[in-house]
Amino acid sequence: MRSRSLFQLLTLIGLAALVLTACGGSSKKKSSASSSGNAGGTLMTVAKGAPSGSPDPQINYTLQEWQLLIITHDGLLGFKRASGTEGTKLVPDLATAIPKPQNGGKTFVFHIRKGIKFSDGKELKPSDVKYTFERLFKIGQSPNAGTWYNVIVGGDACVKTPATCDLSKGVIADDAAGTVTFHLTKGDPEFFDKLAVPFAFILPTGTPNKEVQLPPAGTGPYKFVQYNPNKQIKLVRNTNFKEWSKDAQPNGNPDVIIQKFGLSAEAEVTQVENGQADWVFDTPPSDRLNEISTKYADQVHVNPLTAVWYWAFNVRIPPFNNLQARQAVNFATDRNALVKIYGGPKLAVPTCQILPPNFPGYKPYCPYTKNPGSGKWTAPDMAKAKQLIAASGTKGASVKVNTDTVETDKALGLYFVGLLNKLGYKASLQALSPDIQYPYCQNSKNKVQFCWSSWYQDYPAASDFLNILLGCSSFIPNSNASPNIAEFCDKGIQAQMDAALQQGITDPSGANTKWQAIDKAVTDQAPWVALFNPKYIDFLSKRVKGYQFSPQWYFLLAQASVK
Amino acid sequence: MAVFEPEAEGIVLDAEETGGDIAGRSPWALAGRRLVRNKLALAALALFVLIVAISFAAPLYSKHVANTDPFESNISGTVTIDGKTEPVLQQGGGKLGLGETPIGPTWHSHYLLGADNQGRDVAARVLYGGRASLEIGLGSALLASFLAVVFGLVAGFFGGLTDTGISRLMDLIWAFPVYLLAISLATVLLTAPNGLNLGIFNVSASSLWIPLVIIGVIYVPYVFRPIRGQVLSLREREFVEAAIAQGASNFRLIFREILPNVASTVIVLLPLIIATTILTESALSYLSIGVQPPKASWGTIIEDGQALLYTRPTVAIAPGVMIVLTVLALNVLGDGLRDALDPRSKVRMK
User: Fold this and answer.
1) B246 CB contacts (<8 Å, ≥6 apart)?
2) Could you give the ipTM of this predicted complex?
């Protein structure tokens, strides 16, 4: 409510500014705009590089591109475009309503809105939905097709033979009735979340069933007109767009949104300071933080993220196949020091557990601290750590500390090399290029003992952390795509996860109570040293107004105004 | 053994070196005298010796002056300067308080040049870094020179297929850009789960031997070329033919007749090679594929300092200055040695 009032106020100010401009004799034509800001102008953003991977919306898996895809495309459902916890709520987007589950949570009937057009002028039809989901499998490179969408009837067969994918039994489109019916092989409590992310955004029938280099037509207020990974991405208004839901897809303010590539993070910050760019995608470098904090404080926004930074032990090989050894490192870790490396207490909060704060299933819990009980980490307990190391019998073992060469990540690695040596291990650092470090750690062939990683939510569900990162099925031996880096698989805990997932179909809040217990049980097994929950810095130019931060999509680019 | 006769070789002597001055003196004594007269070369030698001495005194400085362990993080630590206690990493200012900036140069014994982002004493690390850079630079230059001399003598003396085989091998190494070859080798060796395993020898990925051997090997062709050329020329000289006529064995010809005459070339090249290997080591360490942290080298410290260029430039500048001084000293010394030992200046580093 509070933020809505603020935007109404901004609207009034914006209208007043428009009247003043008109009185001043301006003859510029104004475009249609979001009700929360002034329309027009070019929002100039900068990033070090283009989104990694393919530009194809059904393949790309980066926040950087998703921030743009949410204003060019729509799913049947969407996350509400709002700040705070409101931004985690699902709302109907191309569908008229969120359907009630039928058949024990295995069938959903969506009614598609009428009169919506793609940016190429074609009208949206239910058959586009079926086409989109078949394409998701047919292109053969969508990273989560086989894990998120194979629950659709026919999905498993599509994973095996993408070229002949046929979902006619799983996605039934009726253009005359304006409905799409999904049939699932089993209940999936996160199916709606998965419909609200860009992999499932609806594309027009006829979009090539192969990777595209420019995202195809969508239904959002903008469309891609340029996607040059060496130069820039350019979005302009979709003239066929008419706002149908302010919650799901509000109209945008800037006429054009550009993201330029190729500058260093240092140069990006300087450009924003000088007003040459409006927003920096990348995190500002650590040696510029003090400067922007003191000289440009009014242009900086800091928001907590539902994310966790951690070091994963390999629980299957020495010395960390020993629970006491893992717990010892957890007790010895000075999380405040690590927060300092990240940028200080204003940018991160120490944690001991898997789930981040303000997340479904979260309840503060920290056994690895001096004076435990409050749920918060206060200080390391070196005495307890040394006691556990002695009891574990692992003293003297060699440990390779694996991280990447990014400044902060390497600094975290160096901290752990020192700490492990202090605990009696023979530790050394292995810093790899950021491009290869994550797949290298995931592959069990490499026998990585202790590896840095971080995880940012895909959607607000506890299983997105606990089951994806520490579930038995997430460990795939000898694979570069095995997100369970710790190789952790506890049959008892997995049974609890399966039960929570099942309960989530009909009783989400009851399931979240189960996830609380699972979070605690996993934390006690110490497959990770959870370090901290990071915050995100948005550094904007002076002229940007109407800043909104969604916990799902971060800075809502289209809601900013530059006029 | 045949001796070097400057006048017989047609060498123009310095104005100060009259026939009387050099009469009865060995070429080494003459070279030494020329070197002593070259004040610039002597100053360069003194500077290099000073850098080596202070670098190898790093443990003394750390323990007795800075009172710190330059390899251990001190992120949450404090330091007392002029009775005032300050955190080593200081929280950013303003109403947002973002960022943590390491303490700058204190110009006191503690944190003389400030701290890096791990809260470590930069001055102590620069000295330790110098030790590693010099060890690798000297070691790899000696290794490259030794291998080049062996291969150069064998190829130049025996000629034919032996020469062709060795020369093509050297061409093969030479064909790779230096840094590309070094990066490839280092990447493979550093990511091997158990380091380098050669039977009974097991070298861990963090060992200084890895960059030392890599750099040594890639520079062999650069020393091999001039040495082989000189051996080919010496092989046809009268004093060698005379020794052959007297029935000298190949072993004697190589080690008693030819090797002493290529020694001056190696000595002239050595400082220049050391300068080059120090630069290469710094470059590789800067790229994270040379000396592995928490060990320090000038290159790794520059890399650490890169992220602090805006707020704490001394972290990168201090090792940079040390590299410049060392390389400058070695180059000037190399020029002085060349003038002293090879007045015709035939030998140049490519």
Assistant:
1) none
2) 0.77
Question: Does the pLDDT of residue A299 top 60, yes or no?
Answer: yes
Q: Give pLDDT, residue B22.
A: 60
Q: Which two tokens stand for residue B23?
A: 């009469």
- What domains can be seen in chain A, in order of their start residue? 2-258+541-559 (3.40.190.10), 307-535 (3.10.105.10)
Instruction: Out of A13-22, A134-143, A299-308, A513-522, pick the least confident.
Output: A13-22
Distance CA B46, CA B52 (A): 10
Token readout for A69 is 């895809």
Cα separations in angstroms, A520 against A92, A152, A514, A527, A538: 34, 32, 10, 12, 33
* Measured CA angle at A385 (ends A380, A390), to 5 deg: 170
pLDDT of residue B192: 67
CA dihedral A523, A524, A527, A532 (to 10 degrees): 40
Question: CB A302 to CB B117 under 8 A?
Answer: no
User: Domains in chain B, please, with CATH?
Assistant: 38-59+122-341 (1.10.3720.10)
pLDDT band at A2 (very low <50, low <70, confident <90, very high): very low
Residues on A contacting B at a C-beta cutoff of 8 Å: 266, 285-295, 297, 300, 302, 334, 336-337, 340-341, 343-347, 400, 405, 407, 410-411, 413-415, 417-418, 428-432, 440, 446-447, 537
* Dihedral angle computed from the Cα positions of residues B185, B189, B192 and B198, in that order, rounded to the nearest 10 degrees: 120
Q: How far is A517 from chain B (nearest CA, A)?
A: 34
Task: Return the number of CB contacts < 8 Å for A and B.
Answer: 122
Main-chain phi, psi angles of B287, to 5 degrees: -85, 10
Query: Looking at the DSSP assignment, which residues form a beta bridge with residue A180?
Result: A110, A173
pLDDT tens-digit readout, B245-278? 999 999 999 999 999 989 988 998 999 999 999 9
Chain B: residue nearest A294 by CA? Answer: B94
Q: Inform me whether the pLDDT recorded for A280 exceeds 70.
A: yes
Q: Is the pLDDT of residue B12 over 60?
A: no
Query: Are residues A248 and A78 in contact, defined by beta-carbon separation less than 8 angstroms?
Result: yes
